TrEMBL record:
The Major facilitator superfamily (MFS) profile domain, residue ranges: 1-66
Keyword line: Membrane, Transmembrane, Transmembrane helix
Lineage top rank: taxon: Archaea
Name listed for the protein in its UniProt record: Major facilitator superfamily (MFS) profile domain-containing protein
Matching SUPFAM superfamilies: MFS general substrate transporter
Organism: Methanobacterium spitsbergense
UniProt-listed InterPro entries: MFS_dom, MFS_trans_sf
Transmembrane segments: 34-56
Length: 66
């Protein structure tokens, strides 16, 4: 099950970031602005991963469902 979810996650990530520049250009964004949008999104993801790691270490493991 975890393998299927990992494959789906990677496929969704690849599909989104390979198709997104074309979509943004269709919305009248230049190539430079669409690339900048993707870069900012990636940097936000890195910051989010680091900060949520800190939060998980600080507060410990909690059950996802009660």
């Amino acid at each position: 099950m975890a393998l299927i979810l990992a494959i789906l996650g990677i496929s969704a990530y690849w599909f989104t970031y390979s198709w997104l520049p074309t979509y943004l250009q269709g919305r009248n964004l230049s190539v430079t602005k669409s690339a900048l949008w993707i870069i900012v999104n990636q940097i936000g993801g890195i910051i989010g991963l680091i900060s949520f790691g800190y939060v998980a270490d600080r507060f410990g493991r909690r059950p996802a469902f009660s």
